[in-house]
Amino acid sequence: FGSRPGFGFPAPLAMRRAGRPAAGLRAKGxxxxxxxxxxxxxxxxxxxxLLQATSKLQPLQATSAARLVDPGLPQGAHHGRSAVPVxxxxxxDPNWRWGSAVGEAHDLAMxxxxxxxxxxxxxxxxxxxxxxxxxxxxxKLALGLxxxxxxxxxxxxxxxxxxxxxxxVACKYEGFLGEQALRQDLKQLGxxxxxxPPYGEVGAFDSLGRVAARALTGMGFITGGL
Length: 226
Fold this sequence. Notes:
Layout: H1 11-19, H2 23-55, H3 104-115, H4 119-130, H5 136-152, H6 160-169, H7 175-191, H8 208-218, H9 221-224
């Protein structure tokens, strides 16, 4: 009889001892409850944090196609007086449409003619050009417009100017390497034209802007415009 649990004790005390878990079991149970709560909190925290963080994100702003930059072009657009938007993707862009009454070329040509409508404005623009403050795409547009007039007047270096414009249409002068080719061809064009001060002489290592100013003035840009 002595080996049976609770034997010999009053009934209420025996029942209490039989229904009460050991202290070690109670401690383990409490630890399990705490661990489960902590795991739930750790699992829920990143999700709540992400929801809060993503709710504060601003939508990306759409980039205008007119401001896309050709990766081959050097940076430094829109300097000085060249505040009118220019064709940032060059003459190879399908919307350029040189020679058409509609398209980006026509719209920008009208704006450039208006902006350089007087001789003092053209002289100031040339000064910006030789100081590298004119975008190369705006320069190419001015060259194309001036060559059209010069070719009709026999002032394009015996057809060298017209050939340069055709090469622009064929996208020969796109990107960084294209700018180097443009400089070389403008140098050859300028050698066929009359020297007009103050840009009548250029050296072998002169910049694209100075070589272009030599060619433009030799084709009557200062007095004739675009």
